Amino acid sequence: MNQDASIVSVKGIGEKTKELFEKMGVYTVGDILLHFPRDYVQYPMAEPVDEVVSLSEKHHAIAARVESTPVVKSTRRMQLTLLTIGSTGHKMQIIWYRMPYIKNTVKRGQYYVFYGKVSVKDGKYVMEQPAVYTPEAYQTMQECFLPVYSVTSGITNNLMIKTLRQVLDAEALMQDYLPADIRESYELCEYNYAIKQIHFPDSMDTLITARKRLVFDEFFLFILKMQYQKEQKKRESNRFVLKDAEFIQEQIQKLPYSLTNAQLHVLQEMTENMQSQYAMQRLIQGDVGSGKTIIAFLAMAWCAHNGYQSAIMAPTEVLARQHYETFQKLCGQFGLDFPVLLLTGSMTAKQKRDIYEKLDTMSDALIIGTHALIQEKALYANLALVITDEQHRFGVKQRDAFAGKGKKPHILVMSATPIPRTLAIILYGDMDISVIDEVPAKRLPIKNCVVGTGYRKKAYEFITEQVRDGHQAYIICPLVEASENSEGENVTDYGVRLAEELPKDIQIGILHGKMKNEEKTKIMEAFADNRIQVLVSTTVVEVGVNVPNATVMMIENAERFGLAQLHQLRGRVGRGDAQSYCIMVNTSETKTAAKRLEILNKSNDGFHIASEDLKLRGPGDFFGIRQSGDLAFQLADIYQDANVLVDASAAVKELLAEDPKLEEDAHHVLRNKMDRFLEDELKTMNL
Predict the structure, then answer these.
(1) What's the CA angle centered on 613, arms 610 and 614, to 5 degrees?
(2) Who has greater pLDDT, 594 or 623?
(3) Which of 139, 157, 165, 528 is 20 to 30 Å from 602 by CA-CA measure?
(4) Cα distance from N-terminal residue to C-terminal residue, the chain
(5) List of residues 6+ apart from 272 with CB closer than 8 A
(6) SS3 346
(7) Smallest Cα–Cα separation from 324: which of 630, 542, 546?
(8) pLDDT interval class at 425 (50, 70, 90)
(9) CA 386 to CA 398: how far, in whole Å?
(10) Per-residue model confidence as pLDDT tens digits over 204-219
(11) 34, 21 Cβ separation under 8 angstroms
């Protein structure tokens, strides 16, 4: 089966299903092979009804002899198929909805294994909508890992499994682009084997082997793209030598607060760069709330003071608008008469034309925007400095495209992701690195607590108290809506339930990634203005507006998030002068989950948290927890896979040392893949 063929070439997939797959980014046969499972299910040991003592497991497998024929009952809404299994005193009711045919397939006198969720209703064990297996079939299932995929509404996990089995059974082998000597040196399995085993592993060992290969590939290709382009460049001369560094010190004196020593040190490194022989290429790593924005403003104002333009690109319109308002306020506060411009994708054509004209004429403008800053029509007069905020949200090619808008400008990128320095050097190998490892003295440390679900009522009462005191709260859920394959809180249902728990006068908002940009912006602006007091959201607020009035961050199913991501979420509060709180609800009973969350409970230092979490990770601990989901990797995690990242970096270095332009015959497949990657990036960016 051709990897470039449309997904409709797979038997059973028509136009309607094709459209649903496209919502998931699956357009071709090759795309679905790269839509990796997000988790795996191992079937538990089958047990008789009278041995069911705990309902803590997600699913149970109940082995029983069927003593009576299932009964079909019709209600006004649907047909129910009912069966009672077990012995006197240990009975369980089985219920199937809209499945009357079960009556003919489950035979009286036969043994079966029923697999599904068990609950207690009216003092009785009840299993709803279970799968049914013969004991022999279930034993075979126990030996397998069942993949669980992220899907959109209308696509079931079973359809994913059926489609992938069909594609893999077609035995359409893909060419392994990784040179054989690299596979051998780093003990990596063959690519086709890895693809098959990541979807349908034979064992935990083969799953780990497959994942290692695919994680290596993600790191290898990421670093190779960066280095491949870097090798084609030379270090650029400084065309925008900035003068009068005392200007920055004068503005610092006007601030109503003192900068930290770490901020002052980074400013010193930055000013030396921008006055040196070569153009600056610097990454600023700063923990959440460490004060990166004021550094960006001072750098941009310095450019304007020298008669040059500067621009900062934010990952969301909400954040771009906030920077715009902040920079306008600071210019007024400092008595600076520099134009501050905003350019975003949602602006009208007329508004954009007006901004394009100003970009061409206002030579000392401070320019703030989103991806719209790198579109074809955005032309700049004399762009001396480009800044990308939250660098991990942008690809290397986007950063280069932004820099390409000027004549070799200074480049500054900022990230709040706490990456250990050794790994940061690899991921940002073409840049100098600065770290802001202090938070402003006026900030009170966030008070943390890890609790179980029984604490929710008290948490709601506490949130109500905070709102009554004039403050606001975030509540984070891992899911947008209920899913057949995911257990956890979802914002859709949670918002409805919360409205019943909180007083009617408290306004509740709902925010998630499936909303349109205009709708998300409207909700976030309402929250920023305190027209919404409690915001129920997915992790889309991880990089969001600064709401100093928000004092509570409550995170449901906290064990499902990586600690770096939890730390980012927690950073949404504690931005004002009031005491702030983070409530992490742990729904897991495992010791590992409790131990990991305790790290976050005891520390507000992102770099310490990342380091400690790294120590706890094992090679098989990679289900359901992602640290670096925004760092352009589908499987790889820079913390847990740090050793593989180091190996991939070494492999790239060796490869390019031997063949800088990938011209040797042994590397032609890899070179073709690199060229295709770069073309795809350009198409994605509409450049």
Answers:
(1) 85
(2) 594
(3) 528
(4) 32
(5) none
(6) coil
(7) 546
(8) confident
(9) 12
(10) 899 999 999 999 999 9
(11) no
Contacts of 567 (CB under 8 A, 6+ apart): 288, 418, 600, 606, 609, 610
Identify which of 202, 46, 41 has the alpha carbon closest to the alpha carbon of residue 137. Answer: 46
- The three-state secondary structure class of 582 is strand
Please report which helix (H) or strand (E) contains residue 133, including its range: strand 131-133
Going by their DSSP bridges, the two strands 39-42 and 60-65 should be labelled as unpaired
CA dihedral 636, 637, 643, 648 (to 10 degrees): 40
Q: State the pTM of this model.
A: 0.66
Q: pLDDT at residue 14 above 90?
A: yes
Report which residue type is found at 638.
I
User: With contact defined as beta carbons under 8 Å apart, do 467 and 506 qualify?
Assistant: yes
Q: What are phi and psi of 158, to 5 degrees?
A: -65, -40
Mean pLDDT of the chain: 87
In this structure, the number of other CB atoms found within 10 A of the CB of residue 412 comes to 28
Checking if the pLDDT of 249 tops 90, the result is: yes
Pairwise CA distance, residues 680 & 398, whole Å: 12
Contact 48, 63 (CB under 8 A): yes
pLDDT, tens digit (0-9, with 9 covering 90-100), for 278-290: 999 898 988 777 8
Q: What is the dihedral of CA 288, 289, 290, 295, to 10 degrees?
A: 110
Residue 21, judged by CB atoms within 10 A of its CB (0-12, 13-18, 19+), counts as: buried
Strands in 432-436's sheet, in edge-to-edge order, are 340-343, 366-369, 309-313, 383-389, 410-415, 281-286, 432-436
Sheet holding 534-537, edge to edge: 447-451, 581-585, 550-555, 472-476, 534-537, 508-511
Q: Which of 613, 609, 631, 630 lies closest to 622, judged by CA? A: 613
Residue 114 or residue 566, greater confidence = 114
Residues 558-567 as b or e (16 or more Cβ within 10 Å = b): bbbbbbbbbb
The answer to whether the CB of 64 falls within 8 A of the CB of 42 is no
Phi-psi domain of 380 (left: phi exceeds 0; alpha: psi -120 through 50; beta: other): beta
Residues 6+ apart with CB under 8 A from 203: none
Q: Which residues neighbour 578 within 8 Å (Cβ) at sequence distance 6 or greater?
A: 444, 471, 551
DSSP 456-506: HHHHHHHHHHHHHTT-EEEEE-SBSS-BTTB-S-BHHHHHHHHHHHS-TTS
Assign 3-class secondary structure to 87-122: ECCEEEEEEEECCCCHHHHCCCCCEEEEEECEEEEC
Cα 663 to Cα 217, 232, 672, 673: the distances in Å are: 20, 14, 10, 13
